[in-house]
Amino acid sequence: MRHNELMKRTETRSVRVGDLIIGGNNNVIIQSMCSHPTKNVEEVVKQILELEAQGCQLIRVSCMDMEDAAAIREIRNQIHIPLVADIHFDYRLALAAIENGADKIRLNPGNIGGRKNVEAIVAACRTHGVPIRIGINSGSLEKDIHEKYGKPTAEGMVESARRHVQILEDCGFYDTVLSFKSSDPLLCIDAYRLAARTFDYPLHLGVTEAGTELTSAIKSSLALGTLMLDGIGNTIRISVNGDAQKEIPIARELLKDCGLLHNVPNLIACPSCGRTQWNMEPVVDEIAEYLQTVNKDVNVAIMGCAVNGPGEAKHADIAIAGGREEGLLIKKGRIIEKIPVDQMTQRLKEEIDAFVPGASQEQL
Known about the structure:
- This protein is an alpha/beta fold.
- It folds into two domains: about 5-255, TIM Barrel (Alpha-Beta Barrel), CATH 3.20.20.20; about 265-364, Sulfite Reductase Hemoprotein, domain 1 (2-Layer Sandwich).
- The chain has helices at about 40-55, 65-75, 90-100, 115-130, 145-150, 155-170, 185-200, 215-230, 245-255, 280-290, 310, 345-355, and strands at about 15, 20-25, 30-35, 60, 85, 105, 130-135, 175-180, 205, 235-240, 265-270, 300-305, 320, 325-330, 335-340.
- The strands form three sheets. Strands 3-4-5-6-7-8-9-10 form an eight-stranded parallel β-barrel, surrounded by six helices. The protein has a five-stranded mixed beta sheet with strand order 11-12-13-14-15.
- Helix 2 links the parallel strand 4 and strand 5.
- Helix 10 (about 280-290) runs parallel beside helix 12.
- The longest helix has 17 residues, at about 155-170.
- Residues about 1-5 have low confidence and may be disordered.
- Converts 2C-methyl-D-erythritol 2,4-cyclodiphosphate (ME-2,4cPP) into 1-hydroxy-2-methyl-2-(E)-butenyl 4-diphosphate.
């Protein structure tokens, strides 16, 4: 068993969202957000179904007006994962979203009007079994908190959260999830660590406004990876500018490497060097994309040469060590046969499909 599989998770309350349980000792949930206006039902449903197929477990949609809120009912009837409605300022949108089937709402109680508005939302949430995520962003802290600390700080973010949490607790409501997002990954780490010491509510992890696929992967790995190895975090979202489908593979890889997601393939590929005598990049890219559709614990290695390849791939379940015109197929460290370079990709796919986790070398 790897060291990170022994990691103790931070204990929190458990919150039900549809058929998911967030917090407690449950798995970390992968979340994403639709990039289309919610009222465009056909586009939204298509995107959600594509994200589901990748492994998204919880989806958020914007709720800008009553047309968006009404669309939630039709969307909810065509998808298979819980849906979160993102609400700002107008409490009536929260009520409509809940009535139309939202499984969770995201809002800040302090920005939704007076106490009567909050009490109306809480009553609707109780009736329909809907939790609330309070989202604290470093860039939109209350004016007095920003002036008090002079800049976004972990202490200021947690102080803001206390205000919003207190409003719900005064209403006797505790089905709450918290998030503390920033575009600065180091501030995220500080804020979530302080929040984990301050609250017993589940935490949704994310680096907001993280930029491109590359910058988001780096910032999210730094912040979210660090926190999850601390045992902190119950849901995650990788924020990438553009297509939401870029988010899920990063989230799955991050959870897998933290020992928090199983039945996920692992791809090992050397960076190539002067010894590489074949065009391995297209093979690596195609196999990486193919593995996103595979749900099993299998280690696949693609190595650039026959010098170090067999030795470096000996711990993989299935491996290829390529040469000028052919490569070696290796299983569990044993060389099985030689394969022409132009057949490597298809053969790897066949071997991946046939692989049975836990089978002995003789059975493979």
